[in-house]
Every structure is written in structure tokens, then in C-alpha cells.
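Bumping with the actual sequence this time:
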Amino acid sequence: MSNRGRHGQPVKVEKARNWRNTLLRIWKYLDVYRGQLSLVLLMVLVSSGLGLLGPFLIGKTIDSYIAQNSGTALFTILIIIGCVYLLFSVSSFMQNFWMVGIGQKTVFTMRNQLFTQLQNLPIKFFDKRQHGELMSRLTNDIDNVSQTLNTSVIQLFSSVLTLIGTITVMLLLSPILTLITMIVVPLMYFGMRWITNRTGKLFKEQQRHLGDLNGFIQETIAGQTIVKTFSQEEKITAEFMEKNEQLRKAGYWAQTYSGFIPKLMNMLNNLNFAIIAGAGGVLALNGHVSIGTIVVFTEYSRQFTRPLNDLANQFNTLLSAVAGAERVFEILDEEKEKDEASSRSIDYVAGAIEFRDVSFSYDDGDQTIEDFSFHANPGETIALVGPTGAGKTTIINLLARFYEPNDGKILIDGIDVTTIKRDSLRSKMGFVLQDAYLFQGTIKENIRYGKLNATDDEVVDAAKMANAHSFIMKLPNGYDTVLKQDGGGISQGQRQLLSIARAMLSDPSLLILDEATSNIDTITEMKIQEALYRLMKDRTSIVIAHRLNTIQNADQILVLDQGKLIEKGNHKSLLEHHGFYYSLFHSQIKQEAIS
């Protein structure tokens, strides 16, 4: 299975935007919590100051009290040092506590915005994306941002402040030892630069492969029946292993390069310690520095390199988070499905439908619909007939404004649909599709999806009209029976009856039926047909027909082939014409007789 959309077009993987712009966008989310961030920064200042004060006091203790063997004063200074480190721990806890709250609120907002954006994107967007890949952006990518906000922001602040404070105090104590300590800085800089230049690209590649793998897993699980039907387990497993190997390689090199940083820093820390000990010993012998100063410098040298180490490590984490945030922002920047400012709502639809010279193609490819025209009066039943790929479903998609025609007009009651708000238009339409989709939840909730404010009595009445009430009452909990995802736990025919009940409850003016009785046993088909006749009464209905014996009473039958309307009439007139419909109808009769 390649990474392709519903219509077979290759899915383009967009390049990530500039990381600086992404950081600025993340900051806009954090700016809302400016007051809390100020408290976090205050605690960072306090903890950084206390972190610098502790080693300084230890050095002074060695020079002033231990060397002079002053026990009483030593006990007092040790209490002070203990209080310093206690306050350091408290301030560190408070800054982490507040920052975690800010981080969680921020990703909460981002996750809400992303999910809301997905609900407002046009159908064509989802045609080009694997659903699992979109799920990866809602989960993995936002989790990366969350982890970074929870830890990296504080460490970045703390590292910068500690670095500045450490250098300042070191210069005050001994400029010579400070310069000696700085010897390792160029080595750190060039080493980290060499590593981070590679890890940024690798982390982005890792996130992309992770999204692809998630999409493949979701697609495979959803299509398990097809996989097993065609005995493609080995092929699917091989494809998964290939994608998993790609993710393994990307993750291996990303983590390997990022793992060099702590190793490099530890090596440079040890080198720096040896240099300070050796040079400090020489200076102490010559009376330029005290023993306490050397002890302070050894601790400060670690505090000096630790912020650099933290900055390097957090830079890698930040790159991973930015790669995730970029993928989130790509979705947020997609153009929403929106109406024109002049669009209006409609309160009533009589049901007249007209297509005027409508042409349409997916992604500027071959024409799916070409110069298609027809007119339906209110209450009529229109059947769409033709081979697979003739454009039947496309006509429905255009009528519901899931897509916009390239040329021509579509009118309802004489009103151009492009001037009608989409939600208002679709609220007047009811859909009963070949694959009845039900959500995880109770039967009552699934039926009420057609009208959220419907009473329990209205739900029951709709189920009775749809011939679904009898089987519902036989279930353990009746209307409160909880269905699994996509209606698992009941038969295909029962799912279809619930789908009809949902459409009945919405009381649509226009009805769309996509061969609602296919793959259904004879008894259930009779129940569905009876329910559909009730639903279609006094409503304009468009029926996508695969089995021609179900549309013999249609007012108009439109025969399509390769996107063009080639025949039009009722069942009787089309048979008398001895054209394409005649051949199609009699070929089906022969197939049914054989079977």
C-alpha cells in the first residue's frame, strides 16, 4: 500500500517551515500565560542564584573556617549552606510545578485547535491524507511539544542564567583560572554544532516516518477483513517491516548523533576538571589563589559546562518538538471549508434540483463529470446508473458541496448552491450510504446523531419507521446497548436500519441513497426497502443504483458513462430504447439467474 489518497493521487509530503517562525508561533501560545511565566522566571532566578551561592560559601568555608579550625563558626556556616540548598530545591520544585501547568494548558489549546481545524477542513483534504498520519499529528507531534514545554523552557532559562552568573563570579574570583576554564568552550561549540546540524534533519525524518507508519497501521487494521479475504498477511507484514525498518534507521541515526552530545560533554568536563586542578595547583603554590578558590572553581567549572550540556541536549529535544509543531501548524494553516460572506441560510427546501452544464475533475486531472445537466421536480426519485467510475458518487459530492464544480451551476429550488451556507444546505439533506457508519456509543446516541435535540420518544418513533425497533428491543439493553466502533456487535443489515432511522429523525428535504440494500440478506432487504419507501415519500431522492431491479419505479433514471450523461428516462422508456441501460439491465438479470 503506497502513501496515496482516496482517488489514487500520490500524497505530497510538505517540507517543514523555518524553525524560527515555528518557535515564534509557539511563543504566541505561551504569551497568554505571561503572568505565570513571570513567576517561573522569578523562581529560575532564585534557584540559579542559590545554585551559585552554595559553592561560593563552600569555598569561603574552606578558606576561613576549616583552615583556621573554627568549629563554632563552621557549624553556623554549614547550617546556612544547608538552608541555601533547601531553598534551592523548593524554588526548583515550584518552577517545574508552574511550568508543567503552563505546558499542559498550551498543548491542550493546540490539540483543541487542531481537532477543530480537522472538523472544518474540506473532504478533499482527507482524500489526500492517511487517517493514521493525521492521528499521529494529534498525538505524537503534540506530545513532543508537550514534553519540551514541560522541561526544556525551564532548562533553557536556567542554563542561560547559570552560565552568565557562573562566568561573572569566576571572573571576580580569578580571571586567570577563568581564562583557563574557557579553553574547552571552542571545543564544545564546534562539537555541538557538528552534531546538531545533523540531528535536526534526522529528527524531522524520524517524525515523517513515524507518521507514515501510523497511517499504515491504521489503514491495515481498518482493512483487516480485506487483508484476510485475499490472504495478503505476508505482503502486509513485509510492507510493515519495510516501513518499520525506515523508522528504525531514522530513529537510530537521530538518537545516535544526539547521544554523542552527553558523551562529548562528559569528556570535556573531565578534561576541564584536570586543567583546573593542575593550573590551580600551580597558582596556589605561587600564592595567587587559595585552596578554597580552587574548590569553588572545580564546582563552577561543572556548573559552567552543565548549562552548555543542558543547552545542547535541550536543543535536540527542541528540534524534535519543532518538527512536531511544524507538522501541527501545517494542518492549522490549511484552508478551511468556508462560505462566502454573502452566503445565506435557507429555512425550507421544496426539493427542486437542477444541474446546468456541470463539469468537474479531481486535482485538475481527467474530467470526472463533463457537461452534466438534469432537472428534478420536488418529490421525484432520481436514480443514477452506470459502471464504476462513471461519476455517480461525484454528483452527490457536488450536490452536498463537498467539492465545487469547475464549470456550470447547481441549483436547489432555483437557488445557486454556492450562495447557500454549507451547514444550512447539508442540514436539509439525509444520507443513507452503502457502508453505514456508526460511532462507538449507545444505539440511542447513534440514532439521535440525526437530530441532537430529539427526545427519546422521537428516537423510538424513528426506529419504528425504519423497522429497527424490533431488533433493538431484543438486545440486552435495548436502546441503551453500547455499540463498538463502527457498529461492531450487530449485523450489516441492522447497521443499515439504524442508519435509516438516523436519516428519518433528521427529517431531510433531500434524500441521498447509495445502494443501501447491497450485501443484505433477503428478509432484511425487504425490511430496508419498506423503510426506505417510507423515508422517500414526498421527498426528492437521489438513488445511486447498482442493482437495477431496485429502481424500476424511479421517476427519472440517469445513465452515466465516463462522466457523461448518455441516456435519460424512466425504466420502461429506457428498455424500449434498447441502449446502454437495456444491455446493463439484461446482463444483471442473467447474472442473478445464474447465481
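The C-alpha cells above came from a reply further down the thread. The first strand starts at residue 353 and ends at 361.
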